[in-house]
UniProtKB/TrEMBL annotation:
Lineage: Eukaryota, Viridiplantae, Streptophyta, Embryophyta, Tracheophyta
Name of the molecule in the record: UTP-monosaccharide-1-phosphate uridylyltransferase
EC number(s) per entry: 2.7.7.64
Keyword Transferase on entry: yes
Keyword annotations of the record: Nucleotidyltransferase, Transferase
Amino acid sequence: MASELGSMSVKLSQMDINGDWKISAPNLQKNLAILSPDQIELAKMLLETGQSNLFEHWPEPGVDDEKKRNFFDQVTRLNASYPGGLASYIQTARELLADSKAGKNPFDGFTPSVPSGENLTFGDGNFVKFEEAGIREVRNAAFVLVAGGLGERLGYNGIKLALPSVSTTGTCFLQHYIESILALQDASCRLVQGKYQTQIPFVIMTSDDTHARTLELLESNAYFGMKPTQVKLLKQEKVACLNDNDAKLAVDPYNKYRIQTKPHGHGDVHSLLYSSGLLNLWHDAGLKWVLFFQDTNGLLFKAIPAALGVSSTKQYQVNSLAVPRKAKEAIGGITKLTHADGRTMVINVEYNQLDPLLRATGYGDGDVNCETGYSPFPGNINQLILELGPYIKELTKTGGAIKEFVNPKYKDSSKTSFKSSTRLECMMQDYPKTLLPSARVGFTAMDAWLAYAPVKNNPEDAAKVPKGNPYHSATSGEMAIYRANSLILRKAGVQIDDPVLQVFNGQEVEVWPRITWEPKWAVTFSEMRRKVGGNCSISQKSTMIIKGRHVFLEDLSLDGALVINSVEDAEVKVGGSVQNKGWILEHVDHKDTSVPEEVRTRGFRINKVEQLEMNYSEPGKFCFNP
Ligand code: UTP
């Protein structure tokens, strides 16, 4: 059989290959007999795209033949996972590398302006109206979490999804996300259908760096209560590295029979969703929305109902969640770009491109704050809501390909060689770049305290962040959750003490009472208001954890730690005065390796000195009022 295949491939090679092959890739030519016809086709494509260097070191047939065939297995994968295949990748790379060498500005000819969108204020009538509209729609949505990133800046040894979002409960980000989706699912179905029916699909995009550990986290925790069939993992592939301006593919320095690869960026999510066939399945099932989010933003779900309400009310095909942005802050600005030839698009412009773009187009001061004290361009937090129908139509046109960029680090100003290999990259938020000007693209802006507190930076780097800018560390991410929960309860009428300032891991943060609740306790502000009544107060040193749906706080005065656990069919009213020594935050040095990484990365641990814990494990109505 093997020799039959061999002789077939030799015949094919003789028919297909012109004489130049012998000259340009003599080592490959000698090895043709060991390759299958499909592999020979791929070899041909590689030679035609100028990649003969990949075979320079190939020895005579009979040496490393298996490895040579494995090389083509990798080429097959790289070819299949890129829209248009490797030839298209190399072609695009050449064009982008030429533009980069020439210093071409991607926004040449475009004038920036502030796009239209919805600016929301937490808790006012408008916000509540959009939240209710969002809850109605959520049963028609699918959620997509991009979690293939390496998290190099954070430097955590595990996957970011496994990191506790708060240390009071130890709930990891993935658990929090799943519980939030399930809570939204219940709330939406109860509101619209009166009973639980719909299962909201949840997709997680992983990569070779995160896939196995994400699956393991789900399986070892019974999918955190979600039906395993509701969850789908899609793994993104890396892309080929490029050695020079001519887009020569790089040989892996550790294995000469492999092409070196690096991550392509979160923009892959669009082509993966498209090729998975899921979008059409969702469409056929009547779904209308796809919500994209990232791995470590513990606040996001507080903003989701209102933002989805904006999408549905304003019929946005693309809705980017945004927060007020300080001029020059290191987050992109959502910007409308109008070209001299009439083209327009609403997209994210990276912060380092916004200032030069503004200066080049008549705004002499560049990226500056306006009278509000913020940049007029809303800050992009990379959480997108897309309308499914138009999304499918667009991806059918593009095959899911997203406009890419290349960022080579040149050795010198001649820009002829790179310090190390580079590759094409793409970003999820660049999806609107190919849309027609008639597409309805907008944004929903909310206060950062409500919507955005990612965990991206390690303690050392976070401590170096200029004063006034967000740390985006595990410390600030956790404190932001307590702050948001305190502010939300305050708005609902609970008297909450002001925070104190404390320094952990070199970062000064506001420390509010450590209040957390399971998402099902209250997914909207209206629901929260129904759950607190009378005169409630919580002191700064307090910790409160609510686990359960039907828990009502009435005339509660808390100064200490209170933990309430109640089963689904228990209705619990909690009031009166609760006082104890509580849970104390103790400093931990981030360099102290005797402390678990999850703890030392945030610079504190919780010493559970004393608490009142109430457990309601039976159905029924209960009242606690000491
Ligand atoms: P980040 O900007 O946080 O990047 O990605 P990162 O790669 O995780 O971290 P650094 O830059 O190495 O420090 C934003 C989101 O996009 C996902 C991340 O998992 C995160 O949720 N992502 C990033 C992908 O899914 N794939 C990628 O190739 C890159």
